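Sanity check

After download, print the first record. It should look like this:
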Amino acid sequence: MDKLIEARINAAGIRLGEHVPPRYRYVSFTRAGDIAYFSGKTSVAVGSLQSRTGKAGRDVTVDEAGEAARLCAISLLSAIEFGVGLERVKGILKLTGFVASDPDFSEQAVVVDHASRLLVDVLGEAGWHARTAIGVAVLPGDATVELEAVVQLTSHVEEAQA
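Expected structure tokens:
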């Protein structure tokens, strides 16, 4: 891992988790040229961190849901590191956040912003992204948040010049 990224991870006070292969019939990510599509990561335990379940606005506060989004971002960063290496990230092109929400809850953007902040904190300029935050009725395992990402990777030519 790149020393600057490692320093940013340490400064953010996080530890990347181990790769956990999918339990069902899909892969963690796919690639098309320099674009990688990362499967959804839910707010389940990452290492020793606590998982978060339930609906925002009913079972979970905005801050607790935001922490769930941060857990998802840690899981996503872990998947990127395992799959292609964080040093290969040229940019997070798109982050989509799904928030299990009570019907009256409307703070999905606030929740997903916790993940956005962490991605920028760790990846710097490469962490800025387009984003969608969506409220949904339920997520797998009763997770509070799920994130998926589209990532642009550096080409081998760019790596050789660096």
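If your output differs, re-run the checksum step. Summary of this record's structure: Strands lie at 29-32, 35-42, 89-100, 130-136, 145-153.
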